[in-house]
Amino acid sequence: MFAADQASRGLGVELLEQGEGTAVLRMTVTPGMVNGHGIAHGGYVFLLADSAFACACNSHGPVTVAAGADVTFVAPAYEGDVLVARAEQRTRFGRSGLYDVSVLRGDEVIAEFRGRSRTIGSASTGTAASTTSKESR
Hints:
The chain has helices at 6-10, 42-57, and strands spanning 14-19, 22-28, 64-73, 82-93, 96-105, 108-119. The protein is an alpha+beta fold.
């Protein structure tokens, strides 16, 4: 899945590790990621965490997407900072799951992210399930 993720890979995000329900990704804050306050735009920090979440929740095989996510920004990141996002599955129940992601600069927490996943695909085919209701589109 990550190999086809043009958004993340185009921003220099690297997949360092992936296991069953886990993932570790890295990104360096570039000049184009800095906002008017001179700090990393929160959207880029969120993207890194969301990408780690996506890798972790898709490690089980079936196509799985975000049902929702929340982020708490703890400290600012700056141009040149190397950020690492560590995602870990907390639980899976039915077609849903909860994942926590810590975004770190070294040992310092930059952000905490909680993602809620929903499996929409088939484990045997790896493709998204066909749906007909408006709510699922």
